[in-house]
Specification:
about 100 residues; mainly alpha; about 0% strand
């Protein structure tokens, strides 16, 4: 889902269709949550893409460590807190800088 978002997908239904079958919530709820992606600034799409690239690099580096199993990227991505994703999809939810 994040890869599709990073690659420019703007249709919430198309992104929702990529959801893992164990994901809680109805397709309608997921589409509503992904509604912001239709107007997502390209800068935020690029940030998502960069984060995915970083995760892939970390996965490769973990795989090079002796005695540690390589984790599939999907397991690493599952640790992403929903609040972090909210900041990416809806920047107005991010904490404001104190002046």
């Amino acid at each position: 889902m994040l890869q599709a978002l990073a690659e420019g997908e703007t249709d919430p239904a198309a992104i929702a269709a990529l959801a893992h079958q164990r994901l809680r919530g109805t397709p309608e709820q997921l589409c509503e949550a992904l509604g912001a992606c239709s107007e997502l600034n390209p800068v935020y799409r690029r940030l998502v893409k960069m984060a995915l690239e970083d995760l892939q690099m970390i996965e490769q580096q973990i795989g090079q460590l002796p005695g540690l199993p390589s984790l599939p990227m999907c397991q690493v991505a599952q640790t992403c807190r929903s609040s972090t994703c909210d900041f990416i999809l809806q920047p107005s939810l991010a904490p404001q800088k104190r002046t």
